[in-house]
Here is the input.
Amino acid sequence: MTVNPNKLWNDCLQTIKENVTEQQYNTWFKPIAFEKYDETSKTLLVQVPSPFVYEYLEENYVDLLSKVLRRIFGDGIQLTYRVVTDKTHKITQVIHSDPIDSIPTQRPTARANQAKTPIDTAQTDLDPQLDPHKSFNNFIEGDSNKLPRSIGLSIAEHPNTTQFNPMFIYGPSGCGKTHLINAIGLRAKQLFPQKRVLYISARLFQVQYTNSVLQNTTNDFINFYQTIDVLIVDDIQEWISATRTQDTFFHIFNHLFRNGKRIILASDRPPVDLKGMNDRLITRFKCGLIAELEKPNVQLCIDILNQKIYRDGLTIPADVVEYIAKTANGSVRDLQGVINSLLAYSVVYNSNIDMRLAERVIKRSVTVDDQPLTIDDIMDSVCNHFNVSSAAVSSRSRKREYVVARQVSMYLAQKHTKMPASRIGKLVGGRDHSTVIHSCSQIERRLKTDKAFSEEIASIENSFRLKS
Here is the structure.
Protein backbone atom coordinates (compact mmCIF):
# COMPACT_ATOMS: atom_id res chain seq x y z
CA MET A 1 0.00 0.00 0.00
CA THR A 2 1.34 3.43 -0.99
CA VAL A 3 1.69 5.83 1.90
CA ASN A 4 0.69 9.46 1.34
CA PRO A 5 3.93 11.55 1.49
CA ASN A 6 2.00 14.44 3.05
CA LYS A 7 1.11 12.11 5.93
CA LEU A 8 4.77 11.06 6.20
CA TRP A 9 5.75 14.71 6.49
CA ASN A 10 3.13 15.22 9.22
CA ASP A 11 4.65 12.23 11.01
CA CYS A 12 8.03 13.96 10.75
CA LEU A 13 6.59 17.12 12.29
CA GLN A 14 5.04 15.10 15.11
CA THR A 15 8.38 13.45 15.86
CA ILE A 16 10.16 16.79 15.77
CA LYS A 17 7.54 18.25 18.09
CA GLU A 18 8.39 15.58 20.65
CA ASN A 19 12.07 16.54 20.57
CA VAL A 20 11.94 20.34 20.83
CA THR A 21 10.17 22.86 23.03
CA GLU A 22 6.73 24.13 22.06
CA GLN A 23 8.09 27.60 21.27
CA GLN A 24 10.90 26.17 19.11
CA TYR A 25 8.40 24.04 17.20
CA ASN A 26 5.92 26.89 16.68
CA THR A 27 8.65 29.31 15.61
CA TRP A 28 10.79 27.20 13.28
CA PHE A 29 8.91 24.05 12.22
CA LYS A 30 5.21 24.89 12.19
CA PRO A 31 5.65 27.50 9.37
CA ILE A 32 7.23 24.84 7.10
CA ALA A 33 4.75 23.80 4.41
CA PHE A 34 4.92 20.46 2.58
CA GLU A 35 4.84 20.89 -1.23
CA LYS A 36 5.62 17.56 -2.86
CA TYR A 37 7.66 14.38 -2.74
CA ASP A 38 9.25 12.79 -5.82
CA GLU A 39 9.51 9.08 -5.07
CA THR A 40 11.76 8.41 -8.08
CA SER A 41 14.48 10.84 -7.05
CA LYS A 42 13.55 10.60 -3.36
CA THR A 43 13.38 14.43 -3.20
CA LEU A 44 11.23 16.16 -0.60
CA LEU A 45 10.27 19.79 -1.35
CA VAL A 46 9.08 22.02 1.50
CA GLN A 47 8.46 25.77 1.64
CA VAL A 48 9.81 28.11 4.34
CA PRO A 49 8.64 31.72 4.80
CA SER A 50 12.03 33.47 4.50
CA PRO A 51 15.79 32.99 3.96
CA PHE A 52 16.24 33.73 7.67
CA VAL A 53 14.16 30.68 8.65
CA TYR A 54 15.99 28.49 6.10
CA GLU A 55 19.43 29.55 7.39
CA TYR A 56 18.38 29.06 11.01
CA LEU A 57 17.09 25.55 10.31
CA GLU A 58 20.25 24.57 8.43
CA GLU A 59 22.47 26.03 11.13
CA ASN A 60 20.70 24.70 14.21
CA TYR A 61 18.38 21.81 13.34
CA VAL A 62 19.93 19.97 10.39
CA ASP A 63 20.92 17.02 12.62
CA LEU A 64 17.38 16.63 13.95
CA LEU A 65 15.87 16.97 10.47
CA SER A 66 18.24 14.38 8.99
CA LYS A 67 17.51 11.81 11.71
CA VAL A 68 13.75 12.25 11.49
CA LEU A 69 13.64 12.20 7.68
CA ARG A 70 15.74 9.02 7.57
CA ARG A 71 13.45 7.36 10.08
CA ILE A 72 10.18 8.33 8.37
CA PHE A 73 11.07 8.48 4.64
CA GLY A 74 14.03 6.10 4.61
CA ASP A 75 17.66 6.41 3.50
CA GLY A 76 18.72 8.42 0.46
CA ILE A 77 16.20 11.24 0.84
CA GLN A 78 17.13 14.68 -0.52
CA LEU A 79 15.60 17.69 1.27
CA THR A 80 14.90 20.76 -0.90
CA TYR A 81 13.63 24.12 0.29
CA ARG A 82 11.46 26.62 -1.56
CA VAL A 83 12.39 29.90 0.17
CA VAL A 84 10.07 32.90 -0.03
CA THR A 85 12.37 35.84 -0.81
CA ASP A 86 9.71 38.46 -1.58
CA LYS A 87 6.26 38.01 -0.03
CA THR A 88 4.77 41.02 -1.80
CA HIS A 89 5.58 39.79 -5.30
CA LYS A 90 5.49 36.08 -4.35
CA ILE A 91 9.08 35.48 -5.46
CA THR A 92 10.66 32.23 -4.28
CA GLN A 93 14.00 30.46 -4.62
CA VAL A 94 14.60 26.70 -4.56
CA ILE A 95 17.64 25.66 -2.50
CA HIS A 96 18.95 22.10 -2.42
CA SER A 97 20.24 21.04 0.97
CA ASP A 98 23.10 18.58 1.37
CA PRO A 99 21.96 14.96 0.89
CA ILE A 100 20.64 13.67 4.20
CA ASP A 101 22.95 10.65 4.12
CA SER A 102 26.01 12.90 3.76
CA ILE A 103 25.26 14.79 6.97
CA PRO A 104 27.22 13.34 9.91
CA THR A 105 25.31 12.26 12.99
CA GLN A 106 26.84 15.12 14.92
CA ARG A 107 28.21 18.18 13.18
CA PRO A 108 31.43 19.72 14.52
CA THR A 109 30.74 22.90 16.45
CA ALA A 110 32.34 26.25 15.80
CA ARG A 111 34.11 25.97 19.13
CA ALA A 112 35.61 22.64 18.13
CA ASN A 113 36.85 24.18 14.88
CA GLN A 114 38.45 27.02 16.75
CA ALA A 115 40.16 24.66 19.16
CA LYS A 116 42.24 23.24 16.29
CA THR A 117 45.41 25.26 15.90
CA PRO A 118 46.71 26.16 12.44
CA ILE A 119 49.81 24.13 13.21
CA ASP A 120 47.77 20.93 13.12
CA THR A 121 46.64 21.66 9.55
CA ALA A 122 49.76 23.34 8.16
CA GLN A 123 50.41 20.60 5.64
CA THR A 124 46.78 20.23 4.55
CA ASP A 125 44.35 22.51 2.75
CA LEU A 126 44.08 25.66 4.82
CA ASP A 127 40.64 26.69 6.07
CA PRO A 128 40.62 30.49 5.65
CA GLN A 129 38.15 30.83 8.56
CA LEU A 130 36.13 33.38 6.58
CA ASP A 131 32.42 34.02 6.98
CA PRO A 132 30.80 33.40 3.56
CA HIS A 133 27.90 35.71 4.47
CA LYS A 134 30.20 38.75 4.79
CA SER A 135 31.07 39.54 1.17
CA PHE A 136 31.33 42.62 -1.04
CA ASN A 137 27.96 41.68 -2.56
CA ASN A 138 26.15 42.64 0.64
CA PHE A 139 28.56 45.32 1.90
CA ILE A 140 26.62 48.38 0.78
CA GLU A 141 28.65 51.43 -0.19
CA GLY A 142 27.99 54.81 1.43
CA ASP A 143 29.80 58.02 2.31
CA SER A 144 31.12 56.50 5.55
CA ASN A 145 32.85 53.53 3.92
CA LYS A 146 33.53 54.48 0.29
CA LEU A 147 37.33 54.84 0.59
CA PRO A 148 38.02 51.67 2.67
CA ARG A 149 35.64 49.64 0.54
CA SER A 150 37.16 50.76 -2.76
CA ILE A 151 40.75 50.18 -1.63
CA GLY A 152 39.84 46.89 0.04
CA LEU A 153 38.31 45.63 -3.19
CA SER A 154 41.41 46.73 -5.13
CA ILE A 155 43.67 44.89 -2.68
CA ALA A 156 41.57 41.73 -2.97
CA GLU A 157 41.80 41.84 -6.76
CA HIS A 158 45.55 42.64 -6.82
CA PRO A 159 47.02 40.93 -3.74
CA ASN A 160 50.54 40.75 -5.26
CA THR A 161 51.03 44.54 -5.34
CA THR A 162 52.85 46.10 -2.40
CA GLN A 163 50.85 49.34 -2.40
CA PHE A 164 48.79 50.03 0.76
CA ASN A 165 50.49 47.23 2.71
CA PRO A 166 49.56 46.80 5.49
CA MET A 167 45.96 48.01 5.30
CA PHE A 168 44.92 49.19 8.76
CA ILE A 169 41.14 49.66 9.16
CA TYR A 170 39.71 51.26 12.28
CA GLY A 171 36.33 52.46 13.48
CA PRO A 172 33.77 52.13 16.29
CA SER A 173 32.00 48.90 17.11
CA GLY A 174 29.26 47.98 14.65
CA CYS A 175 30.49 50.08 11.71
CA GLY A 176 31.31 47.05 9.51
CA LYS A 177 35.06 46.43 10.03
CA THR A 178 34.75 42.65 10.37
CA HIS A 179 32.45 42.50 7.35
CA LEU A 180 34.90 44.46 5.19
CA ILE A 181 38.02 42.46 6.07
CA ASN A 182 36.04 39.23 5.55
CA ALA A 183 34.92 40.52 2.16
CA ILE A 184 38.52 41.24 1.17
CA GLY A 185 39.57 37.72 2.13
CA LEU A 186 36.65 36.08 0.34
CA ARG A 187 37.26 38.04 -2.86
CA ALA A 188 41.00 37.29 -2.84
CA LYS A 189 40.36 33.57 -2.27
CA GLN A 190 37.74 33.51 -5.02
CA LEU A 191 40.07 35.11 -7.58
CA PHE A 192 43.26 33.38 -6.42
CA PRO A 193 42.26 29.99 -4.94
CA GLN A 194 45.90 28.92 -4.70
CA LYS A 195 46.61 31.76 -2.23
CA ARG A 196 46.83 30.89 1.45
CA VAL A 197 44.31 33.31 2.96
CA LEU A 198 43.60 33.31 6.70
CA TYR A 199 41.26 35.37 8.89
CA ILE A 200 41.84 35.21 12.64
CA SER A 201 40.79 37.26 15.64
CA ALA A 202 43.56 38.77 17.73
CA ARG A 203 42.25 36.95 20.79
CA LEU A 204 42.41 33.53 19.10
CA PHE A 205 45.90 34.31 17.78
CA GLN A 206 46.96 35.08 21.35
CA VAL A 207 45.42 31.84 22.66
CA GLN A 208 47.19 29.83 19.97
CA TYR A 209 50.49 31.52 20.75
CA THR A 210 50.09 30.83 24.49
CA ASN A 211 49.34 27.16 23.75
CA SER A 212 52.42 26.93 21.54
CA VAL A 213 54.56 28.25 24.41
CA LEU A 214 53.11 25.69 26.82
CA GLN A 215 53.62 22.88 24.29
CA ASN A 216 57.09 24.10 23.29
CA THR A 217 56.01 24.50 19.62
CA THR A 218 56.51 28.24 19.20
CA ASN A 219 58.80 27.83 16.20
CA ASP A 220 56.14 25.74 14.44
CA PHE A 221 53.56 28.40 15.27
CA ILE A 222 55.68 31.18 13.75
CA ASN A 223 56.64 29.07 10.73
CA PHE A 224 52.98 28.38 9.98
CA TYR A 225 51.98 32.04 10.00
CA GLN A 226 54.95 32.90 7.80
CA THR A 227 53.43 30.70 5.06
CA ILE A 228 50.29 32.85 4.76
CA ASP A 229 49.82 34.93 1.60
CA VAL A 230 46.97 37.13 2.90
CA LEU A 231 46.83 37.46 6.69
CA ILE A 232 43.77 39.17 8.16
CA VAL A 233 43.76 39.94 11.90
CA ASP A 234 40.68 41.39 13.59
CA ASP A 235 40.46 43.45 16.81
CA ILE A 236 44.20 43.90 17.33
CA GLN A 237 43.51 46.28 20.21
CA GLU A 238 43.14 43.02 22.18
CA TRP A 239 46.96 42.79 22.19
CA ILE A 240 47.44 45.94 24.24
CA SER A 241 49.73 44.97 27.15
CA ALA A 242 50.23 41.44 25.70
CA THR A 243 53.94 42.08 25.17
CA ARG A 244 55.07 38.58 24.20
CA THR A 245 52.24 38.18 21.68
CA GLN A 246 53.21 41.54 20.16
CA ASP A 247 56.87 40.49 19.90
CA THR A 248 55.93 37.25 18.14
CA PHE A 249 53.60 39.01 15.71
CA PHE A 250 56.36 41.56 15.01
CA HIS A 251 58.58 38.80 13.61
CA ILE A 252 55.70 37.30 11.60
CA PHE A 253 54.81 40.75 10.26
CA ASN A 254 58.39 41.48 9.18
CA HIS A 255 58.70 38.17 7.34
CA LEU A 256 55.41 38.60 5.47
CA PHE A 257 56.08 42.23 4.65
CA ARG A 258 59.59 41.57 3.29
CA ASN A 259 58.23 38.77 1.10
CA GLY A 260 55.44 40.89 -0.38
CA LYS A 261 52.60 39.12 1.43
CA ARG A 262 49.38 40.95 2.25
CA ILE A 263 48.59 42.04 5.81
CA ILE A 264 45.15 43.44 6.73
CA LEU A 265 44.45 44.62 10.27
CA ALA A 266 41.32 45.90 12.01
CA SER A 267 41.00 47.81 15.28
CA ASP A 268 38.52 49.96 17.15
CA ARG A 269 41.04 52.83 17.24
CA PRO A 270 43.85 54.27 15.03
CA PRO A 271 47.48 53.18 15.59
CA VAL A 272 48.37 56.38 17.49
CA ASP A 273 45.76 55.50 20.14
CA LEU A 274 46.99 51.95 20.73
CA LYS A 275 48.58 52.85 24.05
CA GLY A 276 50.48 49.88 25.43
CA MET A 277 51.36 48.54 21.97
CA ASN A 278 55.04 48.20 21.09
CA ASP A 279 56.33 51.33 19.32
CA ARG A 280 58.14 49.36 16.61
CA LEU A 281 54.88 47.50 15.85
CA ILE A 282 52.88 50.74 15.69
CA THR A 283 55.48 52.15 13.28
CA ARG A 284 54.85 49.21 10.95
CA PHE A 285 51.07 49.58 11.25
CA LYS A 286 51.44 53.19 10.08
CA CYS A 287 53.66 52.49 7.06
CA GLY A 288 50.81 51.34 4.78
CA LEU A 289 47.27 52.69 4.52
CA ILE A 290 45.23 53.78 7.53
CA ALA A 291 41.53 53.84 6.61
CA GLU A 292 38.72 54.94 8.90
CA LEU A 293 35.28 53.34 8.80
CA GLU A 294 32.75 55.79 10.19
CA LYS A 295 29.34 54.99 11.57
CA PRO A 296 26.85 54.78 8.69
CA ASN A 297 24.59 57.79 8.24
CA VAL A 298 20.79 57.48 8.21
CA GLN A 299 20.54 56.94 4.44
CA LEU A 300 23.12 54.15 4.48
CA CYS A 301 21.31 52.57 7.44
CA ILE A 302 18.08 52.67 5.42
CA ASP A 303 19.84 51.05 2.45
CA ILE A 304 21.30 48.32 4.69
CA LEU A 305 17.91 47.67 6.26
CA ASN A 306 16.13 47.50 2.91
CA GLN A 307 18.67 44.98 1.62
CA LYS A 308 18.24 42.75 4.66
CA ILE A 309 14.45 43.10 4.55
CA TYR A 310 14.42 42.04 0.89
CA ARG A 311 16.81 39.16 1.55
CA ASP A 312 14.72 37.86 4.46
CA GLY A 313 11.45 38.23 2.55
CA LEU A 314 9.94 40.68 5.04
CA THR A 315 7.40 43.44 4.60
CA ILE A 316 8.15 46.49 6.75
CA PRO A 317 6.57 49.93 6.18
CA ALA A 318 8.93 52.69 5.02
CA ASP A 319 8.26 54.85 8.09
CA VAL A 320 9.23 51.94 10.37
CA VAL A 321 12.45 51.41 8.40
CA GLU A 322 13.31 55.11 8.73
CA TYR A 323 12.54 55.03 12.46
CA ILE A 324 14.88 52.07 13.00
CA ALA A 325 17.62 53.71 10.91
CA LYS A 326 17.43 56.93 12.94
CA THR A 327 17.31 55.16 16.30
CA ALA A 328 19.86 52.34 16.00
CA ASN A 329 22.79 54.64 16.75
CA GLY A 330 24.59 54.04 13.46
CA SER A 331 25.49 50.44 14.26
CA VAL A 332 25.14 47.84 11.50
CA ARG A 333 25.14 45.13 14.15
CA ASP A 334 22.24 46.81 15.97
CA LEU A 335 20.33 47.19 12.70
CA GLN A 336 20.64 43.48 11.98
CA GLY A 337 19.70 42.60 15.55
CA VAL A 338 16.55 44.74 15.41
CA ILE A 339 15.41 43.14 12.12
CA ASN A 340 16.06 39.64 13.48
CA SER A 341 14.11 40.48 16.64
CA LEU A 342 11.21 41.96 14.64
CA LEU A 343 11.09 38.80 12.54
CA ALA A 344 11.11 36.57 15.61
CA TYR A 345 8.35 38.59 17.31
CA SER A 346 6.20 38.61 14.19
CA VAL A 347 6.60 34.84 13.70
CA VAL A 348 5.97 33.90 17.34
CA TYR A 349 3.01 36.23 17.83
CA ASN A 350 1.74 36.07 14.23
CA SER A 351 1.61 39.87 14.02
CA ASN A 352 2.47 42.46 11.41
CA ILE A 353 5.64 44.50 11.79
CA ASP A 354 4.45 48.02 12.58
CA MET A 355 5.65 51.10 14.43
CA ARG A 356 4.50 49.93 17.84
CA LEU A 357 6.33 46.61 17.52
CA ALA A 358 9.43 48.43 16.26
CA GLU A 359 9.37 50.78 19.25
CA ARG A 360 9.18 47.87 21.68
CA VAL A 361 12.01 45.97 20.00
CA ILE A 362 14.23 49.07 19.75
CA LYS A 363 13.68 49.79 23.42
CA ARG A 364 14.83 46.30 24.40
CA SER A 365 17.55 45.80 21.77
CA VAL A 366 19.38 49.07 21.31
CA THR A 367 21.20 51.34 23.73
CA VAL A 368 21.22 54.86 22.38
CA ASP A 369 21.91 58.31 23.68
CA ASP A 370 18.78 60.41 24.11
CA GLN A 371 16.52 57.49 23.27
CA PRO A 372 13.24 58.90 21.94
CA LEU A 373 10.04 58.47 23.86
CA THR A 374 7.50 56.04 22.55
CA ILE A 375 3.72 55.94 22.80
CA ASP A 376 4.08 53.06 25.26
CA ASP A 377 6.38 55.13 27.53
CA ILE A 378 3.87 57.96 27.59
CA MET A 379 0.82 55.75 28.10
CA ASP A 380 2.54 53.87 30.93
CA SER A 381 3.20 57.11 32.78
CA VAL A 382 -0.32 58.44 32.15
CA CYS A 383 -1.96 55.18 33.25
CA ASN A 384 0.15 55.02 36.42
CA HIS A 385 -0.78 58.59 37.26
CA PHE A 386 -4.53 58.13 36.75
CA ASN A 387 -4.50 54.54 38.06
CA VAL A 388 -6.12 53.06 34.95
CA SER A 389 -5.05 50.31 32.56
CA SER A 390 -3.72 50.89 29.05
CA ALA A 391 -6.43 48.55 27.77
CA ALA A 392 -9.09 50.81 29.30
CA VAL A 393 -7.49 53.90 27.72
CA SER A 394 -7.50 52.22 24.30
CA SER A 395 -11.06 50.96 24.70
CA ARG A 396 -14.28 52.63 23.51
CA SER A 397 -15.43 53.35 27.06
CA ARG A 398 -16.65 56.90 27.77
CA LYS A 399 -15.97 56.82 31.53
CA ARG A 400 -14.58 60.18 32.55
CA GLU A 401 -11.32 58.84 34.03
CA TYR A 402 -10.63 56.84 30.84
CA VAL A 403 -11.45 59.78 28.57
CA VAL A 404 -9.13 62.13 30.49
CA ALA A 405 -6.26 59.62 30.45
CA ARG A 406 -6.86 59.00 26.74
CA GLN A 407 -6.82 62.70 25.87
CA VAL A 408 -3.73 63.35 27.99
CA SER A 409 -1.93 60.45 26.27
CA MET A 410 -2.71 61.88 22.86
CA TYR A 411 -1.70 65.40 23.90
CA LEU A 412 1.64 64.29 25.34
CA ALA A 413 2.33 62.01 22.36
CA GLN A 414 1.83 64.90 19.97
CA LYS A 415 4.00 67.15 22.13
CA HIS A 416 6.91 64.76 22.74
CA THR A 417 7.07 62.55 19.66
CA LYS A 418 7.39 63.26 15.96
CA MET A 419 4.40 61.12 15.06
CA PRO A 420 1.55 62.57 13.01
CA ALA A 421 -1.92 62.70 14.52
CA SER A 422 -3.10 59.80 12.36
CA ARG A 423 -0.36 57.53 13.75
CA ILE A 424 -1.06 58.58 17.35
CA GLY A 425 -4.76 57.89 16.94
CA LYS A 426 -4.08 54.48 15.45
CA LEU A 427 -1.87 53.51 18.40
CA VAL A 428 -4.33 54.77 21.00
CA GLY A 429 -7.26 52.51 20.32
CA GLY A 430 -7.44 52.82 16.54
CA ARG A 431 -8.89 56.33 16.44
CA ASP A 432 -8.64 58.82 13.56
CA HIS A 433 -6.60 62.01 13.39
CA SER A 434 -9.59 64.27 14.07
CA THR A 435 -10.09 62.61 17.47
CA VAL A 436 -6.45 63.34 18.33
CA ILE A 437 -6.74 66.96 17.27
CA HIS A 438 -9.93 67.40 19.32
CA SER A 439 -8.33 65.74 22.37
CA CYS A 440 -5.27 67.99 22.17
CA SER A 441 -7.48 71.07 21.93
CA GLN A 442 -9.46 69.98 25.01
CA ILE A 443 -6.27 69.48 27.05
CA GLU A 444 -4.71 72.77 25.91
CA ARG A 445 -7.90 74.65 26.81
CA ARG A 446 -7.99 73.09 30.28
CA LEU A 447 -4.29 73.79 30.90
CA LYS A 448 -4.94 77.51 30.47
CA THR A 449 -7.54 77.63 33.23
CA ASP A 450 -6.76 74.76 35.63
CA LYS A 451 -3.52 75.22 37.58
CA ALA A 452 -3.85 71.93 39.45
CA PHE A 453 -4.32 70.07 36.16
CA SER A 454 -1.23 71.82 34.76
CA GLU A 455 0.78 70.56 37.71
CA GLU A 456 -0.52 67.02 37.09
CA ILE A 457 0.62 67.15 33.47
CA ALA A 458 4.03 68.45 34.53
CA SER A 459 4.32 65.59 37.04
CA ILE A 460 3.52 63.02 34.31
CA GLU A 461 6.08 64.57 31.94
CA ASN A 462 8.71 64.47 34.64
CA SER A 463 8.02 60.79 35.33
CA PHE A 464 8.52 59.61 31.76
CA ARG A 465 11.56 61.84 31.33
CA LEU A 466 13.12 60.18 34.35
CA LYS A 467 12.36 56.73 32.87
CA SER A 468 13.98 57.59 29.57
